[in-house]
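Weekly structure sync, notes
Attendees: PL, DS, HV (note-taker this week)

Item 1: MaoC-like domain-containing protein
DS walked through the input record. Source organism listed as Erythrobacter aureus. Sequence as pasted into the shared doc:
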Amino acid sequence: MNRAPKPHIGMKLPDLLLPVTRRLVSMGAAASRDWQPQHHDPDWAREAGLPDIIMNNYTQAGLISRFVTDWSGPSGRIGRLRFAMRRPLCPVGNLTIRGAVVDLSAESDTLVWVEIDAEILVGDDIVTTATIRVALPGPGGDSSAWHCSGSRWNP
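Item 1 (cont.): predicted structure, written out as tokens:
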């Protein structure tokens, strides 16, 4: 059964709200084998001019991917993820990831590319911006984006 969302331009994805803890920041870095001290040593980070330890790019990429796949469900397949970290993301409470569909293009009757612009916010401050391109099954059947390959895979 196809439970993929029926996207339209302007469609807002459900916000993702997460607590940003020291544990999340340091364990995210450790999980990606990023042993740089700015991700786990607050004294080192402050001496380097940072406000606190900072979340690394791999953890942010994972959270952005989760945001998209929470919306798309298992039928969505991320083809491209680009993001820019604008400000350090420190363990300071909660973050919110929000986004909306900005473009649709039908590859065929069975595959639709959805482009999403997203932001990670801490309070009202945008700390990271992202553009994600995800493949979803098209209106013409139960085809899976996971079976798409070769010349049809154009993220």
